[in-house]
Design a protein that fits this description.
By secondary structure, the chain is α+β, with helices and mostly antiparallel strands. The protein contains 17 helices and five strands.
Length: 370
């Protein structure tokens, strides 16, 4: 009897050990909601780690992730319920999902952040922003406005400080530069801020985001910590092989390309983008593929191809990605030292996207909007 019990115990723990060993891949066969959760979580880790290489302080990491969200999401499309990773894939995210993307990526770095829903007097929410906990204090990082709120000494501000003294909002360098660059837009944004500050109703805050996990997530995290991108690449290949099996062929190829692109697997992504354009020159996803392919060329610093690709989008598909393409052209020309062309490109970009430095340079060079 004792021998049988020992055999049972050995078999039991052997099964548990094998389950732990293979569970990251077992998760691929779970219901889609659970599979996506583990995959997206790993993708957030890949992005957060890649974007913060060389950073020492949490503040530097937050700045890098802020810049990433700013340059990879654009205020357009139809708002819908989705995961932050899905918003990144479409590159379309209004303020609420830009805040959630920032939360998710910071959560992968174990940095506390939360999104905050602001209200006007009627109880309608005109805006959602993000707070990050740094230096024992919650500070406002607003990716959709491209503003990190600071006082005149460069100290980052909390929402309560802006509510107590709304004049601080209009002392931000971006607002000062915007007033000269586009007085009409400044008046619109001023009225918009005044509808929310001082707080007419208390803001609603999410719980601070540190990525939560079930046991399979934690095991997958452990594999990622040990094997890094070699584990993720294999996991992603398996995930993409299993997903979208019943989707239309063009959507499936587009889905694969975007996932490879977001995971910095540029060669695979470019191959998929090129194959898509060859096989589906006319598709509901064609202009998206052209835009993301241009972004990829920018990512790998092939600025000549990126420039040609963004100009093609502006000339042939101007409705959806026009402002975003000019934004990237501004960055391209700035990277190669052509400041005049950079500012001319930025002059066609939605002011929400522009930094105070760009607005100040536009004003300095007399490129104000009337």
């Amino acid at each position: 009897m004792l021998k049988v019990l020992r055999i049972f115990i050995v078999l039991f723990f052997s099964v548990i050990l094998l389950g732990l060993l293979f569970s990251p891949f077992v998760s691929l066969f779970l219901p889609e909601k659970l599979t996506n959760r583990t995959y997206f979580r790993l993708l957030y880790h890949v992005i957060a780690d890649r974007e913060t290489i060389g950073c020492i302080s949490d503040e530097d990491k937050v700045s890098r992730i802020f810049d990433y969200v700013l340059s990879h999401t654009f205020l357009q499309g139809t708002p819908y319920e989705c995961k932050p990773a899905e918003s990144l894939m479409s590159a379309e995210a209004y303020c609420d999902y830009q805040a959630r993307i920032l939360n998710a990526l910071l959560g992968a770095l174990n940095i506390n952040s939360r999104y905050v829903v602001l209200f006007d007097k009627s109880g309608i929410s005109p805006h959602t922003t993000c707070e990050v906990f740094l230096g024992e204090k919650w500070r406002v990082y607003d990716a959709s406005l491209n503003i990190i709120f600071q006082d005149n000494l460069g100290n980052k501000l909390a929402l309560e400080e802006l509510s107590a003294n709304p004049g601080l909002i209009f002392q931000q360098r971006k607002m000062i530069a915007l007033k000269d660059y586009d007085p009409q837009d400044y008046a619109i944004k001023s009225a918009w801020f005044n509808s929310m500050f001082p707080f007419p109703l208390p803001p609603e805050r999410s719980t601070p985001v540190i990525l939560q996990a079930h046991i399979l997530d934690r095991i997958a995290d452990g594999y990622y910590k040990i094997f890094k991108t070699s584990f993720f690449d294999f996991y992603q290949d398996s995930y993409l092989h299993l997903k979208k099996q019943n989707a239309a062929a063009d959507l499936r190829l587009f889905f694969m390309a975007r996932n490879y692109h977001l995971a910095y697997r540029y060669a695979k992504a470019l191959k998929c983008y090129d194959e898509f354009l060859l096989r589906y020159p006319v598709s509901e996803y064609t202009q998206d593929v052209l835009f993301f392919r241009a972004m990829l060329y920018f990512d790998i610093k092939n600025f000549n191809e990126a420039e040609k690709s963004f100009e093609l989008i502006i000339n042939k598909y101007p409705l959806k990605w026009r402002s975003a393409s000019y934004y990237y052209l501004g960055r391209i020309y700035g990277a190669v030292g052509n400041d005049a062309m950079s500012l001319a490109s930025y002059n066609n970009v939605d002011t929400l996207k522009l930094s105070f430095e760009v607005l100040e340079n536009l004003n300095k060079n007399g490129l104000r909007r009337q």
